[in-house]
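Continuing the series of single-chain predictions for the mutant panel. This is the parent chain; the variants come on the following pages.
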Amino acid sequence: MDAPPALGALDRRFVNVLRWRGAVLALAVLAVAGIGELILADQGLLNGLAGVPALAIGAWLTFVAPGRKFGHWGFALDDRELQVAHGWLMRVHTIVPIGRVQHIDVSQGPIERACGVATVVLHTAGTDHSRVAVPGLSRDAAEGVRDRIRSAIGASPW
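Parent structure:
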């Protein structure tokens, strides 16, 4: 039996995408905390009871969590399958046989486009886990993965 391929890292620019997403979430947390601060001030309670924890959470979401999340992603592609692994507490390792792929998308949202990365999305037969995504690839690498899988699908006996 062949040894499993080593999982490669995503494009480093994906950390910036994760930071922007964290910053947007942090703004939502801070907005809710701002409303909480107004309610607490109206009750005569100490200022900062909602704001200080919200600032700490926002800093974590924007500066700490993205790097940690990035470090727990990996993928590998060979002629038979795509492997994607992510997560720390709940580690998920998905293996997609190339013969099961029905179609492939390369997508970029506005933040991804600004940071120069893309996501490859494989759609397979079935209902559970029929969509497998590999985020954080350079646009050229994402298109290369798509083209390589498309070629392998054409050569597949299925």
